[in-house]
Amino acid sequence: MILRRLPCLLAMAGVIAACSNSSNDTQVFGGHTDIINHRITLQDGQVTVHAEGVPDAVVDGSGKLSIDGREVPVNDAQRALLQRYNASAQAMRADAIATGKAGAATAAKAVGSVASKLAGNDEDKATAHDQIEAAANDVKLAAAKICDDVASMKAAQDQLATQLDAFKPYASALGEANVEKCREHASN
């Protein structure tokens, strides 16, 4: 039973951490630069949004918006939305790393259990199975947090697009399909 689940657990850890297996919805986490949906880049605490036909927009943690290297004036409410947008992206990164770690821990438990079984130690089989199931559930819960972050980031993006004209061209960086795909993959 455990041998049969090992490839699934290893694959699940990678797929859930990425929140998608499609090339249009890629997330790469853990290095110095993280990419979401080929349109959003996280680097050094800044979120850069790429949109066709316009210069990149950069949102920092303080809520400053720069487009083509020039700061865009914003009011307090807009600054708060920009801060929320950046914070959601940073939370997504942290949750993705946590999910990857949970997936690695699950895989390590599964490998240890398989090794124990191959060595002839069957007495702990039920306990090992329960531990692996619990660890796999931890991975799913961690992945669900990523999807919550995607939804939060999209909500901030949508509000920014209605309240800040300069942000309107970047309003399609995340779509409802991104949130739905993430939740679908996280629940599998």
UniProtKB/TrEMBL annotation:
<keyword id="KW-0732">Signal</keyword>
<protein>
    <submittedName>
        <fullName>DUF2884 family protein</fullName>
    </submittedName>
</protein>
<feature type="signal peptide">
    <location>
        <begin position="1"/>
        <end position="17"/>
    </location>
</feature>
<dbReference type="InterPro" id="IPR021307">
    <property type="entry name" value="DUF2884"/>
</dbReference>
<dbReference type="Pfam" id="PF11101">
    <property type="entry name" value="DUF2884"/>
</dbReference>
